[in-house]
Amino acid sequence: MVHMKNNGIKWLLAAGMIGSAARAQSTASGVAAFRASVQSYAHANDVAIVHELSDFLAIPNLATDAPNIRRNAEHLTAMMNARGIASRLLESPSSGPPVVYGELRTPGATKTVVFYAHYDGQPVDTTQWVTPPWHPVLRDKPLDAGGQVIAIPTTPGSIQREWRLYARSASDDKAPIVAMLAALDALHAAHVPPSVNLKFFFEGEEEAGSGHLKSILEQNVPLLKADAWLFCDGPVHQSRRQQIVFGVRGVTGAELTVYGPSHGLHSGHYGNWAPNPVTLLANLIASMRNDDGRILIKNYYDDVAPITPAERRALAAIPAVDSAMRAEVQLGATEAKNAALVERIMLPALNLRGIRGGAVGATASNTIPTDATASIDFRLVPHETPEHIKQLVESHVRAHGYFIVDHTPTPAERMAHDRIIKMTWEAGYPATRVSMDSPLSRAVIRATEESLGTPIVALPTLGGSLPMYTFESVLHAPLIVLPIVNHDNNQHSSNENLRMQNLFDGIAVYAGVMARVGDYWR
Amino acid sequence: MVHMKNNGIKWLLAAGMIGSAARAQSTASGVAAFRASVQSYAHANDVAIVHELSDFLAIPNLATDAPNIRRNAEHLTAMMNARGIASRLLESPSSGPPVVYGELRTPGATKTVVFYAHYDGQPVDTTQWVTPPWHPVLRDKPLDAGGQVIAIPTTPGSIQREWRLYARSASDDKAPIVAMLAALDALHAAHVPPSVNLKFFFEGEEEAGSGHLKSILEQNVPLLKADAWLFCDGPVHQSRRQQIVFGVRGVTGAELTVYGPSHGLHSGHYGNWAPNPVTLLANLIASMRNDDGRILIKNYYDDVAPITPAERRALAAIPAVDSAMRAEVQLGATEAKNAALVERIMLPALNLRGIRGGAVGATASNTIPTDATASIDFRLVPHETPEHIKQLVESHVRAHGYFIVDHTPTPAERMAHDRIIKMTWEAGYPATRVSMDSPLSRAVIRATEESLGTPIVALPTLGGSLPMYTFESVLHAPLIVLPIVNHDNNQHSSNENLRMQNLFDGIAVYAGVMARVGDYWR
After folding, report:
1. Which of A189, A442, A494, B216 is deepest in the core (most CB within 10 A)?
2. With bands split at pLDDT 50, 70 and 90, how would you rate the model's confidence at B22?
3. A-B contacts at Cβ under 8 angstroms
4. B430 interfaces chain A, CB cutoff of 8 Å
5. Which whole number is the average pLDDT over B256-280?
6. What's the gap between Cα B430 and its chain centre?
7. How far apart are the C-alpha atoms of B159 and A339, rounded to whole Å?
8. Residue B100 contacts A, CB cutoff 8 Å
9. Taking residues A287-315, what's their average pLDDT?
10. Angle in degrees, CA B175, B177, B180, rounded to 5
C-alpha cells in the first residue's frame, strides 16, 4: 500500500537469502498455518487495505479520459513501486492508455506467471448512481437491502465481511489489483517468498474494447514471456464459492437479410407467387438449428472435441443452478430435455439475437413483406475459428440456393438471382480452453483450495466470451481466469460494489497461488 | 339521371306491352346493332351522365358520417325513382347506413338478377388530395401524367375517352351505380327491355366493414330472393380488358407468440440452454410451409378441389403478367419454379405478414430474447372454412409440443408447460367460387363479350378476398364479380379517379348483360 514504507526490495532480497527453506510447508499443518497467517495479516490491515482501494477508486478511470487514465497509471505505478515491483508503462505506438507492467523475480523459481487485471472502468450513467461513481463510499449492507453509508473505521480489524464498498471499478477490476498487492504484503509478513517469478500486466482500456492491446503485446513478446497468465477479472460463483475458469467461448456474429418483392404486395393477389421473405428466413433458420440447439450446418461439429473425463468430473462437482434458474426465468423446460447448463455451454451455440420482417400486431396488414432480417451470434468452442464458421455458414446458405452479397442488392442483382441474401459478419475471436488435467491447472486448483480451506468451483469454460485469444495467439501461453469479486456486484451497471469478504478472500487466494503454484506445478 | 324527366314507369310499361318481340336479336347483326345503339346513346348523353355522376360524388360519403351518408341514400333513391325503379331504404335494426334497394320487374322474365354496388367510400387524408375529395373535377389526362383541370363541356358527345374524373368514390364504387342507371336509360332508348327481373342492392358501409350487412340480409331474405348476384365493384384487368371474376378467396388470420425466458438472458452464459423463441418460431413456421408455398400442415389440402378443365382453359386465356410483374418488383424468380400467378391464386395460401423478436441491427445484443411473434394470413379456397383452418393449425402446433393459450400466459402457466404459445384468431370468412361452366356463368360471359365486341378476361377467382360469403351463406345464390373501372384508379388512396372510357364501356356491359343474360341462361 502506498501508505507503507517501500520495503519491497529489502524484503525480496531477504526472502531470496533465506531461500527455499522459508517456503510455505505443504503439509496439512503448514497449509493451515500459512492460511491463518494470511488471514491474520488481512484482518489486522483491513482498514489500510480498504483505504488503498478507496484512494485508487477515487481517480476517474474511463479509458477515453486521457488525463485521468494516465493519473491512474501513475498512481498504480507508485503502488507497485512501494512493493519493490520493478514497474514501467508499456505504451502503444498509436497512443491510448498505457499498460502498467511490473516484475518481481523470485530467485530459484523456474516458472513465470503473469497476473492480469485492468484499471479502467465501464462508462457511467451518473443519474443512476445513488452516490457518485468516483466518490467511493462504504455501506453496512447492500444498497438494495437498505445499506447505509458508514465511514471507513479507524480501528484495524473492524471491517465487517458483509459491508460493501461502492464505486465504479470497485469490483471490475481494481479490487483484484489491490488484492494482489496486499497478497504480496501478506507473503512478506509471513516471511514466505513467491513460488514463481511474478509479472503484472494491468491494462487501461479493457472496457473500451482493447483497441491497442494487440500491438502492445506484439511489441513486448520477449518481456511478456511466461509459463501462464492468470486473468484476475470477473466474479466468483453465484453460490459465493471461489471459482476458477479454464476457458471462454469464442464469439462471432452475422446479420442476414433476405428479400421478397421490392415493394409490399397484396397477399391475396400475390401470395403463393411472390416469395415471402419471412418464410424464406424462417426456413433458412430452421435449416441451421433444431429446437434442441443442435446446429444442422454440414461439418459444423467436425472441429469440436468431446468433453474430457476431467471436465466431466468438474462439471459434476459444480453446484447445479438449473432448477432455480428455470424458475427464475419462468421456463417449464430447457433445451435438449433439460440438459445441464454446465454441459450446454461446453458446446458451440447458435443464438438468434432477433428477427424483423413485415409487421405484427395492430400494424400487420395482409401484405407480402419486402425483406426480413435476422441477427445471429455464434459461440465458439476450442478449435473453431470465426473464419471457418463463416465458411461453413455461407456454404450452407449457398446450398439453400442463395446468392450472397455484403451490401443491399441492386435491382439488377436482385433480378439476376432466384434468391439473394445480404450477409454481414462481425470480426469475433476464437475460444480458449486450458486442459483441467494439466500440471498448471492442477497446481492452481490445489493452491487456491488450500488458500481458503474450502473446495472451489472448477469451470471448464465460461459460456460467455472474453478476448483472451488475443493473448494466446500472440504469446502462446495458457490462460486461466482466477476471479475474486462477488457475482452481485452490479458490474458494468450503476452502483457497482465490492463485498468486503470477497476482498479478503481474494487476498488469501492470490497469496496462496503466489506462494504455492510453483511448488505444485509438476 | 336526376336531370331527366321521370319516364321510367312509362317506358317499362311500354316495354312490357311490346313484349319479347322487342328483345335484342342474338344474331351477329342484331348483336352489332344493339351494341351500336348503346354506344350511340352513351356518346350522345355523355355530358349528362358525367354530370349525374359528378353531382352524386359531391356528397361526402363516409359510412361514419351519418347525416351525409343518409343524404347519399336519399339522392340515390331519387336517381332510381327517375328510372321508375321501385326503391326503398333497408334499415338495420341497430342503425347504421341504410341499404338503398330497388326492383324493376320484367314481364315474362323467369330469372332475377341483383346488381350490387356500394355508395360509401374510403376515408380520406385530405392533405394528400390535389383537389378536395368531394369536389369532383375533370382532368384532360391522369394527374401523374400532368393532367389539367377542365370544365365539364356543354356540348354532348365531346367527352374524351382518356379524360378522368377525380373524386372519392369516382371508381369505388359510385361509377358502377351511375353506369347501371345509364344502361337502363340506353335500353329504353333502344326500346329493348331487360331479359331478367332486376333488383338493385346498394350498400352504405362496405368500406367500413359491413357491420350491419348480415342483419339486413337476414331480415330481407324473401325480398332479396334471386337467381344470381352481380357484384359491380373492383377494377377490370391491368391490360384494360373487361374482366369477370367468378370467385374470391376466403381469408382468416392468426397471431402467434412463443416464449423464451421471462427476461433476456446472456446468450453466452445461457445460450443452448434457455429456449430461444426466435428459433422456436422459425422452426414452427418452417414446419407449416415450404419455400414453394406448399402448406405442410396435416390434412390441409383434403378439402381442396382440383382445378376444373373450364378453369384451366380460362387461366390459359388470361394475358400473362408474370414476367412484367417480376421485373416490376425485382424478383429473379417466383415461388414453385415460376408457376403462373393465375394458377397460384387458385390454391390455399399461408402468408407471413410479419415477424418480430429480439433486436436486429445496431440494437442487437448477445441476448436470448423473451418472446417472438408472427402474424399470418391464410387465404382460403372453396370448401375451406376459417373454423376448420383453425383446427388444423392448432392440431399442428400441438403436435409440435405446444400448449396453446389465448392470452399472455401467467408465470404459473409458463412453468407448467415445456412450450407455450399464445394464438389469437381473426374471424375471417370462406371463399366463394361459381363454376365457370354453369349456365349463369356462360350467359354472363357471352352477354358481356357481345356488349363490347371483344374477348374478356375470365378469372376463376380473385387472389384477394371479399366478404361475398356473407351473401352466399344467407341468400344461397351464386355471385359473380362484374367490374368496370380502370385498375389505375387510386382506389382507397388519394386522388381516386375514373377513366371516362371505363364509364362508357361499363354502361355497355351492364346494358348488354341486362338485355341478354336471361336469353343466354339455359
Report:
1. B216
2. low
3. 304
4. no
5. 94
6. 14
7. 79
8. no
9. 94
10. 110
Mutation choice for B interface testing from A273, A326, A414 by most B CBs within 10 A: A273
Residue A267 contacts B, CB cutoff 8 Å: yes
Integer distance in angstroms from the first to the last C-alpha of chain B? Answer: 33
Q: How many residues are given for chain A?
A: 522
Q: What would the pLDDT profile of A224-242 be if each residue is shown by its tens digit?
A: 999 999 999 999 998 899 9
Name all domains of chain B by residue range, CATH numbers in brackets. 8-248+432-520 (3.40.630.10), 250-304+347-425 (3.30.70.360)
Non-local (6+) Cβ contacts of A235 within 8 A are: A171, A243, A483, A485, A486, A487, A489, A491
Mean pLDDT in residue range B281-295 = 97
- CA gap B22, B25 in Å, rounded: 8
Given A286, A357, A417, which is nearest B354 (Cβ)? A357
Name the DSSP letter for residue A62: B
Strand partners, A172: none
CB contact under 8 A, B465 and A268: yes
The verdict on B308 touching A (C-beta cutoff 8 Å) is no
- Give residue B5's identity as a one-letter amino acid code: K
Q: Which of B282, B351, B416 sits opposite A267 (nearest CB)?
A: B351
Q: Which residue of B has its CA nearest to A462?
A: B269
Comparing CA positions, the residue from B382, B368, B517 lying closest to residue B440 is: B517
Distance CA A119, CA A125 (A): 19
Set of chain B residues whose Cβ sits within 8 Å of the Cβ of A331: 260-262, 274-275, 414-415
- Whether B427 has its CB under 8 Å from any CB of chain A: the answer is no
Does the pLDDT value for residue A23 go beyond 80?
Answer: no
The DSSP element (H or E) to which B44 belongs, if any, is helix B28-44
The verdict on a CB contact (< 8 Å) between B360 and A353 is: yes
Beta-strand relationship, A99-104 and A197-203 = antiparallel
Is-contact B262 A329, C-beta < 8 A? yes
The residue type found at B321 is V
What's the whole-number average pLDDT of chain A? 93
- Three-state DSSP state, A125: coil
Of B263, B285, B375, the CB nearest to A282: B285
- How does residue B364 score in pLDDT terms, banded at 50, 70 and 90? confident
The candidate with the shortest Cα–Cα distance to B286, out of A357, A286, A272, is A286
Query: Which residue among A333, A358, A418 places its CB closest to the CB of B353?
Result: A358
What the block records as the C-alpha cell of A182 is: 496486499
User: Under a CB-based contact definition with an 8 Å cutoff, are residues A259 and A370 in contact?
Assistant: yes
Residues 456-475 of A with CB under 8 A from B: 462-465
Chain centroid to CA B18: how far? 38
Residue A361 with chain B: CB contacts under 8 Å: 255, 373, 375
Instruction: Tell me the average pLDDT across B398-416.
Output: 98
CB contact under 8 A, B273 and A334: yes
Element holding A421 (H helix, E strand)? strand A420-425
pLDDT in tens, B47-71: 999 999 999 999 999 999 999 999 9
3-state SS string over A146-195?
Answer: CCCEECCCCCCCCCCCCCEEECCCCCCCHHHHHHHHHHHHHHHHCCCCCC
Question: Is residue B304 less than 8 Å (CB to CB) from chain A?
Answer: no
